[in-house]
Each structure stands twice: as structure tokens, then as C-alpha cells.
Amino acid sequence: MPPLVLAAGVFAAAYAAAAATRWLPADVSVSWCRLVSGWLCIVAGVTFVGIGRRQRVGPAAVPVVVLAAAALLWGMGQLGLDSTPALLLKDLAQLSAATLLGAFLAGHITSGEILLALGIVVTVTDLWSVHGGVTRTLIEAKVVDHFLVNFPVLLQPEVGFFIGTSDFVMASLYITCSERLERAWWRAPAAIAAGMIAAGTLAITLRIPLPVLPFMVVTYHLAFPRDYTLGREGLKLLAAGLGLVGALALLYRP
């Protein structure tokens, strides 16, 4: 079975199981239901990425999948499709695009120091985006849910929107790089899931938007302390990346 199909099947099974709990009689705090549902969404999403990234596709197919997913999400938004099957399809499209894109980008990373430099750049970018950039604009426009992976809230007749598609791009990149750098197979998925869960738990508990990548990047590199050193190549990438982020921040006008 193709890895991407298997990944979709596993995620769909978890999604359906969570949705089925809506019909169970229970007197449980809605806050706890949302919190646990967020954890399940993260575990199911990381599992999808871990399996689906092994799908073999040509470089030309990656932008096609990403554009097709974007077109699907745009069409669903225009039509107002929000049934359970439609939202599951939305998730599968987002996760497929994120997984293939992350795995493709990982092919251009050849060392731990480049991965560390990239992690610092995306952390700074995410912090800026949530507190004063693109993500903040999407939140204020009340359209940010279109870019988040959703999951049924356990025991409740509602759907939660939890983790951004871009976060799963980085998850796929990190897990793929970890394998290429011959790290223990389980450490990257565990570290990434832990980082996402930490961010999601704080965001749901405090009821404020929080960037996920800072948590995810920190937990990943804590799991792989050998990758802390930055050489000349890594420092050049870091300087160029931070300079680009700074320029975008100065030019960005919502």
C-alpha cells in the first residue's frame, strides 16, 4: 500500500473514532474534551507525517499536490462546506501537501548545523507572524481556521482547529532529516509531538494564540544535542535568513 494512502487511512480512522464519541452520553468538562482532542489531533497528524513522508514522488509532483490542496481548500471555503467528511478531506489535503513539501525540502539539508540554523530562522519567523505578521492578520480577519488542521472534539458536537499546516511542513522536514542524518527513528517524532502538545496545551489553557514552531524546534534540538554547533555555512544561512525575516517585517503592511 502506498505510504500516503496508509497515512490517510490511519488518520481517517482516528478522526472517525473521535467523531463517534459525540453520541456517547457523558458529563465531562468541555475544556478537558478540547484539550485531549488537541493532543489526539497532534498524535494523529505526526503519525500521518511519519508514514506519508516515505511516499516516493518526483520533484515536479510536489508543487502540483500543494497547488491542488490549496485549490481544494479555497473551493471548500467558497462553498461553505463544513460537514464531517468535508473537514476530514480538508485535513487529508493539508497534511498530504505539508508532508510531501517537508520531505522534499529536507532533501536539500545536508547537516545538523543547517537544520539548526533553519530552526532558529523559522522560530523567529513564527514569533513575528503570530504577534504582528501574517498569522495575526489571519486571526483578526477570522479566517485562520482555513489554515489549521481540524479534529472532532471528544464527546462534544463540535470541531476544534488546532495546528497549522506550516507546522506539519516542518514536522515532515525534521523527521526526514533526522532519518537521513542517521538519528534514532523514534526521537524526532516523539520530540516534535511533545513540542506541539506543549504549545497546544498552553494555547488552549490560556486561550491565546501561540506559535508552535518555537516549542517544536526547541524540543527537537534538545533531543539531538549533537546538532548545537554552528559552523561557517550555518552562520551564513542564519544571517541570510534573519535578514530576510527582518526585511519582511519592515515591509509587511496588513
What does this structure look like?
The protein is mainly α. About 70% of the residues lie in helices and about 5% in strands. The chain has 10 helices and 2 strands; from the N terminus they run H-H-H-H-H-H-E-E-H-H-H-H. The protein has a two-stranded antiparallel ribbon with strand order 1-2. Strand 1 and strand 2 form a beta hairpin. Helix 1 packs antiparallel against helix 4 and helix 7 packs antiparallel against helix 8. The N and C termini lie far apart (about 45 Å).
What is the element layout, followed by pairings?
Layout (H helix, E strand, L loop, with lengths): L2 H18 L9 H23 L8 H19 L4 H23 L5 H21 L1 H7 L7 E5 L6 E6 H16 L6 H20 L6 H11 L8 H20 L3
Brief sketch in words of this structure:
The chain is mostly helical.
Give the key terms.
single chain, 254 residues, mainly alpha, two-stranded antiparallel ribbon, 10 helices, 70% helix
